[in-house]
Amino acid sequence: ARGGARRFGRRGAGPVHGGGGGSGAVKASTPMETYVVGFRIFDAKALDIGDEKECDPFIIVECCGKEYRTATLEKKKQLAPFNESCVWPDLSLFKDQFESGEIVFSVYARNWFTRNYLIGQASLQLSYINKRANCLYARRWLCLRKDGDPNTTGMLNVSVFALMPGQQAPSATLQEQEEQAPTGGEGEGQTDDADMLSKAVLDSTVQRAPGKAHHLEINIYRVQDLPTTKGVAVETEPSPYVTVEFAGSLLKTETRENARSCTFNVKMTIPVETPLYQDTIILKLWNARWGQHELMAKGLISFSELRNNALPPRWFNLYGWNRQEIPDLEALQGLDIEPNYFMGRILVSGRVNPLDDDEEMQPAKRSIANSAPEPNVRMVVLLADVYLVIGADGRQCEVELSYCATSQKTQCVPKDARHKADSGPGGDDEEEAQHSEEVKSFTFKEANGRIAPMLVMSPEDPESRPLLLINVYTYDLMGNRRRVGYTMQRLEAFSEYEPRRPSRPKFYPLTPMPGAVMNPVSVLITVECSRTEDIARHARSMVKPMMYVVRTYAFLARNIEFETQGCTYALRAVCAGRSKETAFKSGPRPRFMRAINLDVLLYSDSQKAPPVIEPICLELLEKRGSSIRKIGSATCVYTHMRQKSNTGVWQPYVLQPQWVKINGTSFGAQVVGEALIAFELLLYKFKRELEPADMMPKPDPEYNRMKHFCRLRKATLHFSLLGLRDLLPMVLAGGLQMRALVKPMVEVEVAWGDEDHNNEAIEDGASGDKDPQALADEGSPARKRPKKLVFKYEPVIENGDVRLRSDRLENWSVEVKPGVKGTSFEFLQVQELQVEIPDKMILQPYIKIRVYEEPSSEFGAWVREKLGAAAGDQVGHVNTFIGESRRSLAEVLPCCWFDNIKTDKKLAEQMDVLEHEIKKAKEESRVHNHFREPTEADLKKMMKRVQQQAKYKDAEGEKLSSSIEDMLRRQMDDADADGYVNSTGLPKPIRESKRKRELNIYPIDNANVQKVENFGTRKGDELVASAGRAAKMISGKMEHLEPGSKTFKNDFYFKAFPLMKHKDVIDRDDKTDWGFWPGTVGYVKCAFKLVDGWHKKAKDTGEDTSDDEDDKSKPVEKPDWEEHKRVHRSYGLDDELDSFAFDQKALRKRFKSMPSRVRLRLYLIKAVCIYSSSRGYPDPYVEFQLGKEKVSNRNSAQPNTDEPDFYMTEERDIVLPDDSRLEVRIMDKVAFGTDAVIGGTIIDLEDRWHSKNWQAANERQEVPKESRPMSTRDEPGKNRGTIEMWIEMLDCQKTVDVKVSPLVKPVEIELEVRMVIWTTKNVKFVKGKDYVNVKVISSLDCGSYLGMDGKTQETDVHYNSKDGNAIFNWRIVYSRIKMPIKTCSVKLDLVHYELMGSTVIGSLDLDLKKYVERVATNMDAIELAEDWLKFKDSEAADDEDIGQAKVQLFVLTQIEAGSKRAGIGREDPNDYPPLITPAEGRDWGDYFGGNPFKLPEFGMWKKMIPLFIIMVIFLFFVIIMKQMGLL
């Protein structure tokens, strides 16, 4: 089929998006991205192949255009071990395709001369897999079924993972883990079952999965109003049909030829059995024309929701694109653009019927649907009047209303005379001039703007109603008509028609047509709905132009997705032909803090009513040199106008800004930035009276809760700098020269936005000719506190001895990129900075950490030598900018800054309140797709809060703790009013009773009641869970774990923050591997905290002092001092970090007290490589770089695999911190050429060494394993797989006492399997025989069998058994089975032997894998007791006994087998166990007893029979020799 389709929605709510113009469709609503799908096929069993007893199976795997075919096995049925895996690393899909996509496993039986026989299929939905833990469907059995057939035809054991961009691949260990089957209890019988050979017999029948059988019913009733296709000469009507896909079934309706509207009335019934591994039911509407099948629309319905709630008959409306309007539909693929062309509708219903236990599932089928009642409809008459169209380009304009297939339009009107927007009375004296742009408008009078009444039939169900399209068309000079914009509105959004009460018109912003570059277009229109057709239309509402002020509060911008070097940014507000922008500010986070007043001409019918406001367009401008361009915009709607109350008091205005996304590119589908904005609307004549709200945060003496947006609070920043790491060399002369850093300097300052572009020339220039510390100390006499912290690298601490390692501050170089060395420096310095920052999280304060190279005479001489004297003189006197890192302070604000947090209470008692306030602040700070205008309920709630705040005085900025507490208590009582019992334990009748007596009742939370915790898990369970290395596995990087993780409590306090140029704030939870990012120039390792108030250390006592008068007047007792500090410091700060990080002596003592040499033990287990190579599978090997040392294991490359097993341990002696950088890479060995990098990961060993929690686990040798994701520098954001590993480090002096942790690859030992077949019984006679010649044939299926004896071994024959019993005492020996193995099974065939050919009576399969693995693990031989095994045949009944064999199993190592030798059968050495040759069934009488030819009785003459035979033979030879002439 050509093209794809948009979807209905999960339950069918809303419109269906489809193709357009009969030629193709938009495939998805989101950009195409690269997904990863991988799978591993283990085994197939119980394959049902009809009359055939065995087959040659193979599997074809299909997923989103990819296909993989396994090898073909021979003569399999009960068990078919495939053990193949594949990874597709480059599935380019849209999100909709991924959500509905499936991976299908089709099992076939090979036929040589006819088509291959399909045994069955199983499918998994990709989105279902992705939502599971680790995005993995781990080693579970899938039922195989044929299309539409409920019967199971086999089982397939697979592991599948599906990854979205940025997700980590599951480790190979997780993919191979067996799923634990549920058990009924904890009895000891499980061990007995494992020691019974009969339990190893594979069941030949497929056990029905535990679950419930259902029938899914989808009813397709009819389609209506499908579009026609424009051909060469005439338009042709479509030939539609509908398909339904789910659970491996595909059903199709009949095709209706040449019909825009037709009836199907078909019920699709699909058998479904839970548990189900997919949820999406796919409906597709097709057009069959001239042998081609075009997809017109696609819809998705959720099976789980349909099972809970049946879907009544409902219309699904189809929307797509018109090929005549957009010829190049392929250009729209992957863009989130709303379709704008009605393409018909389809009537559908559905339900899921659960079946009773005695009911059987029926095959998938198509039948006639029961006639369903038409969804209730009502007659609606749409009445519309168009007033004005603004912003459209063209000579003439008309407006069209379209509902379903019905449409009406206005008359064409010419463009208004050219004019510019009036600046309004009074001008704009105190502000910069507003830009008056040409207003492109089309005015519609009542005669030509009134649209004729449009009669439509609308469903009463809102979900079934189509959308009303308002389209604006223009005509150019040549008379060509084109649509310039549209808007889609729900019918219930319009008011009812009331005679003689016309509705006020409203501006609707129009969505421009894709690819159109134009100003925003809007239409002023009124639309009313009437229930009757016989109406006399009244005159439309008269509106007149008035002057208003649209005030835009521009705060900040962030996350600008463009190069910000040398650029400045501004926000421009555009409304009603007027525009004004802020001053240009430097990036990447420009701070505007400007209220933009736009004097605009709007329409209204009264000064007391809000005007009909046009949409406000917010544009993000970029200035590079003298060039200014728009890089993105956002359309906002704000209609609330400030008014006076009846008493003449102005409604208070509360500034509530929102972060809004700015969209750019030609189609407006990409987010290019975010802006923090708010709006205000008022009449122009009140402009002087109502001044703009104060946006700037105010310090405590000036702050007024009623007037100001937020408070500028004093805080002390405590900054601990551990050092700089992996700094790339400076690039000079356009990249021709590079020089390593020698004297780095770090500047730290606090900001909440970038203001001026000329503050610092930070690229290749300087921060000034003066010393940065001198610049920081400059200021007015009244304010001499430094504005930034300055850290300078010194090779020795103050008053230190360079000969002492504890006094030296190291610097070293290592290779961080191929051929590029990075330099690292130790600082170990702590400083404090008094700052003032806003206390609202929404303003997003942050730290700027900038790194420079200080000027030096040596550097100047080097530059003078390389680049000339002029360059050397310039560089020798300025600081060279290296990079910066921005870290957010929004989530580390002091706890006492949040509302309702009291400083006189312990923080532990207020954690619930604090977490609630932080959650609320984060919700206010999150970004929105569009500006969310406050609703009337929001405004009332805001007014009520303002009125409550107005009752309290807060001039000094003090906390109103008691008043707020009372207010909160009242709010809590109101919230609990519906409850029968409140928090004090009083029932509702007593609370509402008028006769009350005073009771001293306290909330039950404050009662002195001991809280009993729930019982935890048993200690024994915890010990069992923690035993062994497999109990602790981290899926991801250890450094990315949350501090509260159960696997490992992360206490890596000094994480490496990337240094970059022109990069905005990086989130604290960001998990990007910056070591592979091209823009990273190094790292800074630091820690910081904020403390409320300005604190500084006294020079004499060393104790903290504060300028907070309350703290001085109320000394805190020593036992409560820690609690006092917790309330006033950053939220979430660890006490352990606070104990040493911000004390310089303690910091140096902790990081300089380490052994001279450390033994590193690197344990590498296995990897999963997501890598595409032209040679197929890669040849991976490990390469790692530890400090300056590079180690390659190229000679140990594993050929042709994407899941290599390494099981290697590397030991190296290192010096910390010099060798703290460890990079592990997986390489692809290439025979001719350069080896390719599959992926790598970077580990900071210094973090681990100085972590107490890691050291504790390291001492116990219980460091968790990590499944670390891999990246590459070529494609830093692409998933390249995972590597399983862990690290241990210890003092070199302790290496003798601490042995290497065991890392043993599954032992490659050789085992021997012996089976003794003792006897058989109840063997079924072959048809037509009254005896049976019993023989047993054994066939081994094991890929690692190296024995000299064949895989197929046979017993001797027990002849002429009349009762079906036979004795063998026969030994089957399979020696040299090399471990580890993927599979190990033995097939036993029970046959009736004949000289001319044997007949198979029955067979069974033994799965011996668990027995051989047990012996390989504990090296103890297994000897199972004799057990009876039942043979089965596909033609026999399940309960029919066709024969049994008594078999005994022995499994032992090859070394032990060499000391206990035993021959095959009963050959020598006949020991272990000794076997006796049976006499039954082996003599001549038994041999001939089964022969149907009988000799007569000769009495005494029978003794002469041998003589007669000799004579006959003699005469025969005489005759022959006579004929040959020899006699």
Task: Please describe the structure with a list of short key phrases separated by commas or semicolons.
mainly beta; six-stranded mixed beta sheet; 24 helices; 13% helix; disordered N terminus
Task: Report a brief summary of the structure.
With 1527 residues, this protein is mainly beta. Helix content is 13%, strand content 38%. It contains 24 helices and 76 strands.
Structure description:
The chain is mainly beta. 13% of the residues lie in helices and 38% in strands. The protein has 24 helices and 76 strands. Strands 1-18-19-10-15-20 form a six-stranded mixed sheet. Strands 21, 26, 27, 30, 31 and 33 form a six-stranded mixed sheet that branches. The longest helix has 19 residues, at 1505-1523. It starts with 15 loop residues before the first strand and ends with a helix.
Q: Which structural class fits the helix and strand makeup?
A: mainly beta
Note poorly predicted spans.
1-30, 180-192, 426-431, 757-783, 952-978, 994-1031, 1098-1104, 1108-1119
Number of extended strands: 76
Query: Tell me, what's the shape?
Result: flat
Strand content: 35-45%
Measured as a percent range, the helix fraction is 10-25%
Q: Write down the overall mean pLDDT.
A: 81
Count up the helices. 24
Radius of gyration: 41 Å
Strand order of the largest sheet: 1-18-19-10-15-20
Distance between the termini: 88 Å
User: What does the largest sheet look like?
Assistant: 6 strands, mixed
Write the layout of secondary structure elements.
Blueprint: E1 16-17, E2 33-45, E3 57-63, E4 66-69, E5 79-93, H1 95-100, E6 102-109, E7 117-125, H2 126-130, E8 136-145, E9 152-163, H3 172-176, H4 189-194, E10 213-224, E11 229-230, E12 235-236, E13 240-246, E14 249-252, E15 262-273, E16 280-289, E17 292-302, H5 303-308, E18 311-320, E19 341-354, E20 365-368, E21 377-390, E22 396-403, E23 406-409, E24 413-414, E25 435-436, E26 441-443, H6 446-449, E27 450-459, E28 468-475, E29 481-489, E30 495-496, E31 506-509, E32 511-512, E33 522-530, E34 544-558, E35 567-575, E36 578-581, E37 585-586, E38 591-604, E39 616-624, E40 627-636, E41 658-664, E42 670-683, E43 698-699, E44 711-727, E45 730-732, E46 737-739, E47 744-751, H7 772-777, E48 789-792, E49 811-817, E50 820-838, E51 846-853, H8 857-867, H9 869-875, E52 880-888, H10 911-925, E53 927-928, H11 936-950, H12 961-975, H13 988-992, H14 1019-1026, E54 1033-1035, E55 1056-1059, E56 1082-1092, E57 1095-1097, E58 1104-1106, H15 1109-1113, H16 1118-1128, H17 1135-1140, H18 1144-1152, E59 1158-1169, E60 1180-1186, E61 1189-1192, E62 1205-1214, ...
Parallel strand pairs: 1-18, 30-33, 41-53, 43-44, 54-65
Antiparallel strand pairs: 2-5, 2-9, 3-4, 3-6, 6-7, 8-9, 10-15, 10-19, 11-12, 13-14, 13-16, 15-20, 16-17, 18-19, 21-26, 21-27, 21-33, 22-23, 22-24, 22-28, 25-36, 28-29, 29-32, 31-33, 34-38, 34-42, 35-36, 35-37, 35-39, 39-40, 41-42, 44-50, 44-56, 45-46, 47-48, 47-51, 49-50, 51-52, 55-56, 57-58, ...
Helix pairs in contact: 8-9
